[in-house]
Batch of 2 targets.
Target 1
Amino acid sequence: MAIYLDHAATTPLRREVLDAMLPYLTENFGNPSSGHGFGRKARAGLDGAHEMVASRIGAEAREIVFTSGGTEALNLGLKGAAWAGKARGHRIVTSAVEHHAVGHTLRYLEKFGFEVVELTVDRYGRVDPDDVEAAITDKTILVSVMYANNEVGTIQPIAEIARRVHNHRGVLFAVDAIQAGPHVDLDVEDLGVDLMTLSAHKFEGPKGVGALYLRHGTHIVVQQQGGAQERHRRGGTENVAGAVGMATAFELACAERPETTRRLRRQRERLQKAVLAVDGTELTGHPKERLANHLSLIARDTDGNALTMSLDLEGIAASVGSACTTGSTEVSHVLTAMGYPDEEARGALRLSLGRTTTDAEIEAASATVPRVVAMMRTGQVAVAADPLGQGVA
Ligand SMILES: Cc1ncc(COP(=O)(O)O)c(C=O)c1O
């Protein structure tokens, strides 16, 4: 059996989540906009999903917009807020380590006259709140900083950045919390965010379902015209089963967070100790302010793509950094921004654990990963093996 250590890319659908979704794919199939009983059942499921997600982040149900995933939620929030603010200003402040769903969306807005200012980060990938404040001018309408980085796991000082942003009237603060997901507390009042995005497949929900939190009173220009769904903020018949699945997965993950986090941290530390014992390896991202499940490193004189292929042959699913750049010859913009030269950034490896990761898997990975990394560093080729001794699937 292969060991899956790529939960930052996606997670398996949880059984309880599938069970919650199934009625909305079968007998409760109605269109939530229909006035009859079938429609009302679907509407109840959808309304409940809004409530469930909202209550876990300290928001109101009407402040949640379900979308077709994290990328769409980011496009809706960022483009929507930018266009709505255009009359007041054209300057958007962001960090150099955002996911492409943010970076490329903002780059696209530059074509329409928006000015995008990218803040540098330190060696650990952290944004300095002082830099955020210094970058805000009277033309700034939006600041967008991710909560936790998908490649190196670093957590940003979001509440402190929000405080700085809100020293300036009328500037909105958007947070991509897709990787942070339920790993950290996401109370929008404590954090002080105006827009926040989530994606269900990062926490054992279905793929292709996301949510945008939009603080009540925040104006956005709608990006998908059509019907009046989602309170006129996203046209199109809603994915009721998906929304129910996302809400169920989120609720379970939030309720279990303390226990899950404790276990994941212990497991990650065990694996980290084993892998970093290999000469020429270095942890990337912040040593403490990082997601509990996230281990990222650089193995000097190796190639991350070759490394993940060798690990795959040994039955371990890992990634270079981000699922979107796997197989690409480009080095990570995140590691570049953190000051790593190209030749070091090429040896990036990400091992991300999940709720379903077992101690036995971590023990097996703690033997296999260091062996493969060491072999790659000395130019030896990895040999296919069966880390759990259960037969290679
Ligand atoms: C930080 C971050 N933002 C955005 C996304 C995009 O989310 P989705 O896959 O739901 O479109 C991801 C997914 O990897 C991510 O990690």
Note: The longest strand covers residues 294-299.
Target 2
Amino acid sequence: MVLEDTTRGLQSNKVKRLPPSVIKDIELKNHARRLADLSPIRIKVRQCISCGALFESAGNRTCGCNTRSTGYIAGREII
Ligand SMILES: [Zn+2]
């Protein structure tokens, strides 16, 4: 939480952002999760365990650098 707040100001240049489509997807999932009485997925900035870059994560530990699939979408590992 604190991490998220402090990185909000720095953002863009250093932090890989989630694509809007993924954020939208998460919002939809969160809506469903709320109805199901589950805690919502939180997007937070974390450091990639593979390359060390900062990135927005919805639960995954890497920024996607270690996957060769071009169809990979960040945040896909959730649920
Ligand atoms: Zn990475």
Note: The mean pLDDT is 79.
